[in-house]
C-alpha cells in the first residue's frame, strides 16, 4: 500500500496539496486526472522523493520516505516522467536494459538481454532494437521508455502522461500491458492522463485533483459525472455508459462566450502588473 498522509506541498504561495491524504492499493491501476498546472506531476515527483513537501508523510508497505534513504526508496520505482528526451548515443536495446542496471553493477547476462528483447517484442518494437535512440520518433521514444520501466519490474510504477505521443494502436498496447502486468505482478501503478475516456477505461481507481485537493476518488463510473467535469474543467459534457458499461465523456461545444461567465473561478493566480513592471 502506497500511502500519503496530510501532505502539504507548495511553491511559495502556489499551494498544490493542502493536507492531502490517500492510499493506493497494490495490484491496481490508479489514474490521476485534473486541470493543467494543478500539481499532478509535482505529486509524482514528491512520491519519488524529487520534491520535498512542506509537511506530511509518504510511505510504502509501512516504510516512510526519508531523504537519507532515497536510493533504496527509489529502487522500488519504475518512473516514466513527462516528455523525457532520449539524447544519448545508445541503442534502443541498451536504453531498455538500463531499466535493470543500477549504477553500481553493470553486469549484463544473456538472460537480461533476452528479457529486454522479449519486452520489445511484446510491445511490437523488436525491429527497433539496434536503432540509435536519437533517431526515434516521439511516440517510439515513449514506448521504449515504457519498456525500460517494465524491465525494472518495479513495486511501484509511475507514468506521467505516458500516451501523450502515441497513436490509437500504441495507446492500447501500452495501457493493456500496464493493466495486465499490474494485476499479474501486484504492482502499484499510478499514471497521469488527460484523456478522460482512457482514464475511464483503464483506471481501477480514479483520483481527481483540483485546487490543492483530492476533489474526488473512486471507480470511474462513480466519479465521472457531467457535474464533476464542469466543476473541475469548466466544460459542459455529456457522460454516458458505453457498450462495455464504461463512462464515455463527450464535451459539448458552447462557443467561447460560455467561458466568460466562469473565467474568474478557473484562472488561478492574479496577474501582478506591478511585479511585471519591476522585472522590466
Ligand atoms: N520547481 C518549481 N518551482 C516553482 N513552481 C513550480 C515548480 N514545479 C512546478 N511548478 C508549478 O507548479 C504548478 C503545478 O505544476 P505541475 O507540473 O505539477 O502541474 P500538472 O498538473 O502536472 O500540469 P500539466 O497538466 O500542465 O502537466 C505549475 O503552476 C508549475 O508552474
From TrEMBL:
**Family matches, as PROSITE patterns:** ABC_TRANSPORTER_1, ABC_TRANSPORTER_2
List GO molecular-function terms, semicolon-separated. Answer: ATP binding; ATP hydrolysis activity
Q: Which UniProt keywords apply?
A: ATP-binding, Nucleotide-binding, Transport
* Domain ABC transporter, first and last residues per copy: 2-236
Transmembrane parts of this sequence: none
Q: Which Gene3D superfamilies does its entry note? A: P-loop containing nucleotide triphosphate hydrolases (3.40.50.300)
Any Pfam family from its record, for instance, is: ABC_tran
Task: Note the PANTHER family from the entry.
Answer: ABC TRANSPORTER ATP-BINDING PROTEIN, HEMIN IMPORT ATP-BINDING PROTEIN HMUV
The record's similarity note reads: Belongs to the ABC transporter superfamily.
For this entry, the protein name equals ABC transporter ATP-binding protein
Amino acid at each position: 500500500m502506497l500511502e500519503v498522509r496530510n501532505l502539504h506541498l507548495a511553491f511559495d504561495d502556489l499551494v498544490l496539496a493542502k493536507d492531502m491524504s490517500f492510499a493506493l492499493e497494490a495490484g491496481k491501476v490508479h489514474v490521476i486526472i485534473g486541470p493543467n498546472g494543478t500539481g499532478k506531476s509535482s505529486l509524482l515527483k514528491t512520491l519519488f522523493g524529487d520534491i520535498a513537501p512542506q509537511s506530511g508523510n509518504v510511505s510504502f508497505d509501512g516504510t516512510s520516505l526519508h531523504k537519507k534513504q532515497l536510493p533504496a526508496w527509489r529502487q522500488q520505482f519504475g518512473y516514466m516522467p513527462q516528455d523525457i528526451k532520449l539524447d544519448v548515443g545508445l541503442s534502443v536495446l541498451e536504453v531498455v536494459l538500463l531499466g535493470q542496471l543500477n549504477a553500481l553493477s553493470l553486469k549484463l547476462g544473456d538472460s537480461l538481454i533476452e528479457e529486454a528483447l522479449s519486452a520489445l517484442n511484446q510491445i511490437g518494437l523488436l525491429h527497433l532494437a539496434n536503432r540509435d535512440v536519437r533517431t526515434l520518433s516521439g511516440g517510439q521514444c515513449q514506448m521504449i521508455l515504457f519498456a525500460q520501466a517494465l524491465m525494472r519490474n518495479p513495486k511501484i510504477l509511475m507514468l506521467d502522461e505516458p500516451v501523450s505521443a502515441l497513436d490509437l494502436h500504441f495507446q492500447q498496447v501500452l495501457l493493456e500491458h500496464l493493466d495486465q502486468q499490474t494485476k499479474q505482478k501486484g504492482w502499484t501503478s499510478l499514471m497521469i492522463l488527460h484523456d478522460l475516456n482512457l482514464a475511464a477505461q483503464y483506471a481501477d481507481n480514479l483520483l481527481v485533483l483540483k485546487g490543492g485537493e483530492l476533489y474526488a476518488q473512486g471507480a470511474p463510473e462513480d466519479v465521472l459525472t457531467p457535474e464533476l467535469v464542469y466543476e473541475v474543467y469548466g466544460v459542459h459534457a455529456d457522460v454516458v455508459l458505453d457498450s462495455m458499461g464504461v463512462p464515455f465523456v463527450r464535451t459539448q461545444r458552447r462557443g467561447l462566450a460560455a467561458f466568460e461567465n466562469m473565467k474568474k473561478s478557473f484562472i488561478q493566480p492574479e496577474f501582478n502588473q506591478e511585479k511585471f513592471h519591476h522585472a522590466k
